[in-house]
């Protein structure tokens, strides 16, 4: 159990997830480089190397070929695909497996009663230590009503599980979900940037022939400019297409995650009895009405009459029990005093009679 928890903490640690995310991206792009002939990872480094050595003319010589332009366009597409693969594995699959493991904890045979009986000892500790839902479940546990469990009743939740286990919770734990919806816009920007850089380089090369007196040379320069410029727009097309595809797939990822969270919330609600605020208010009103009726009964003459009928015999019995020893003691003392008085009077009479005869 502890080994599983420690492994889960490692797999969900931010450092491990970041390293794994970019490892997946690099692996996907490397695989594309080996499988697609028109795509090469060396294209971008070669452009930077030519620019640093020969300036703009060196860079233009590299990108004037259509294969290089296609490779740049494929770079945008494959980068978007690699990011989607990493997001799918690190977010969709990870969350789906995490919610599945949490649902297994909740699936207790016997329904609500068995769940309530096993909750404190078995279920609660595992859910609080869950790598994704642990903190949220601790807060959710504070909203549960447990007073009926000892009487064989179910646990009652006063707040819906969706209020704690939702996409906002996952975004707080996984920052990648906060930026996934905005990444698609960057592909359009990168495609346009590469297009304009290519056009600027082509104009820079063609500007040398503009001042020439040779009409044929000028015509060839303009023709080459238009031809090169047409190739440069492939990066914009690739960026726009990648942006649209990335946005659609990213939205599908969010729907996938929300569905996984929804299934988990349904499993939680299945094991609990929901007590809505209206139900709690109605129960409180009922208790208040009962208390009001009891207070009215206490203040009525009938209540005091019943109280006198019930209390008077009890008081008489208590008084009788309390005074019985006292009465017995007094009677004994009176008898002793009477006997002593009679004996003393007889003796005194005898003495008086003896004195007269003497």
Characterise the protein shown here.
It contains eleven helices and three strands. It is mainly alpha-helical. The chain has two domains: 2-281, no CATH class; 300-358. It has a three-stranded mixed beta sheet, with no helix packed on it. Helix 5 packs across helix 6 (134-141). The model has no long low-confidence stretch (mean pLDDT 78).
Give the key terms.
358 residues, mainly alpha, three-stranded mixed sheet, 3 strands, 83% helix, 2% strand, rod-shaped
Low-confidence stretches: none
* Main sheet attributes: strand count, strand direction, barrel closure: 3 strands, mixed
Q: What is the beta-strand fraction? A: under 5%
Mean pLDDT: 78
Helix share bin: over 70%
Note the overall shape.
Answer: rod-shaped
Q: H/E element string? A: HHHHHHEEHHHEHH
The tally of beta strands, per DSSP, is: 3
Compute the number of helices.
Answer: 11
- What is the gyration radius calculated from CA atoms? 47 Å
What's this, in brief?
By secondary structure, the protein is mainly alpha-helical.
Protein topology:
Layout (H helix, E strand, L loop, with lengths): L1 H10 L2 H22 L7 H21 L2 H41 L4 H18 L5 H8 L2 E2 L10 E2 L9 H7 L2 H35 L4 H56 L2 E2 L2 H22 L2 H57 L1
Parallel strand pairs: 2-3
Antiparallel strand pairs: 1-2
Helix pairs in contact: 2-4, 3-4, 3-8, 4-8, 4-9, 5-6, 8-9
């Amino acid at each position: 159990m502890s080994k599983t928890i420690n492994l889960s903490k490692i797999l969900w640690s931010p450092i491990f997830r970041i390293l794994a995310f970019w490892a997946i991206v690099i692996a996907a792009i490397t695989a594309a480089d080996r499988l697609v002939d028109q795509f090469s990872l060396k294209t971008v480094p070669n452009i930077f190397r030519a620019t640093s050595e020969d300036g703009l003319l060196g860079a233009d010589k590299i990108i004037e070929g259509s294969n290089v332009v296609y490779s740049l366009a494929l770079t945008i597409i494959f980068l978007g695909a690699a990011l989607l693969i990493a997001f799918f594995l690190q977010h969709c699959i990870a969350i789906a497996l995490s919610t599945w493991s949490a649902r297994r904890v909740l699936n207790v045979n016997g329904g609500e009663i068995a769940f309530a009986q096993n909750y404190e000892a078995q279920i609660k500790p595992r859910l609080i230590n869950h790598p994704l839902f642990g903190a949220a479940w601790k807060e959710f546990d504070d909203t549960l009503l447990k007073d009926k469990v000892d009487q064989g009743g179910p646990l009652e939740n006063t707040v819906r599980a969706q209020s704690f286990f939702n996409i906002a919770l996952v975004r707080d734990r996984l920052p990648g979900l906060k930026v996934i919806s905005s990444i698609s816009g960057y592909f359009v920007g990168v495609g346009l940037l590469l297009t304009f850089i290519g056009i600027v380089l082509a104009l820079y090369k063609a500007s040398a022939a503009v001042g020439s007196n040779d009409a044929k040379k000028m015509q060839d320069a303009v023709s080459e400019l238009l031809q090169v410029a047409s190739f440069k727009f492939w990066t914009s097309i690739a960026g726009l297409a990648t942006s649209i595809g990335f946005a659609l797939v990213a939205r599908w990822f969010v729907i996938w995650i929300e569905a996984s969270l929804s299934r988990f919330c349904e499993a939680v609600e299945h094991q609990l009895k929901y007590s809505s605020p209206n139900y709690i208010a109605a129960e409180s009103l009922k208790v208040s009405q009962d208390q009001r009726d009891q207070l009215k009964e206490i203040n009525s003459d009938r209540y005091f009459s019943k109280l006198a009928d019930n209390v008077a015999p009890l008081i008489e019995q208590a008084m009788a029990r309390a005074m019985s020893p006292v009465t017995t003691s007094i009677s004994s003392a009176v008898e002793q005093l009477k006997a002593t008085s009679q004996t003393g009077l007889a003796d005194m009479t005898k003495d008086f009679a003896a004195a007269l005869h003497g």
